[in-house]
Structure prediction request, 158 residues.
Amino acid sequence: MTDGARRDELVRLLQAYATESARLAQAFSEQHGLHTTDLHALIAVLNADRVGEPLTAGRLGAHLGLSSGATTALVDRLERHDYVRRDRDERDRRRVVLRYGAAAAGIGQAFFGPLGAGMDAMLEGYTEAELAAVARFLAGVTDLVTQRRREVRPLAPS
Prediction:
């Protein structure tokens, strides 16, 4: 296969993945009365919690490209459903950070748990070297897409 044909195949597969991923996010959002931006916010809060760097509302808004008013409305809406909670930062009590709420963990596990189990089963057929190559590829593609998004739509100021 030529380099151009391989690239075209990879782009087609990534487009198919992106489309199906967006459709799955839409299904999740619809089932739980959320907007897809709410789901993106929940993922951002979860990922920040996982690495021990919880987000402030301002950083979440900047990440999502939202104004401060829209971010406040988003966080208020998610907090009402116990999808996120506002906590005082343990290192700086003046600072308020967002944490993943108990209800979000429950609905996330119920909806996405089967996908995780399927992923585990699918990955069993790959060697560590293959998984490392896939991870490197996906990280590179994500960086390219992020850079292009920033070129066409800069994020809101933090």
Notes: The radius of gyration is 18 Å.
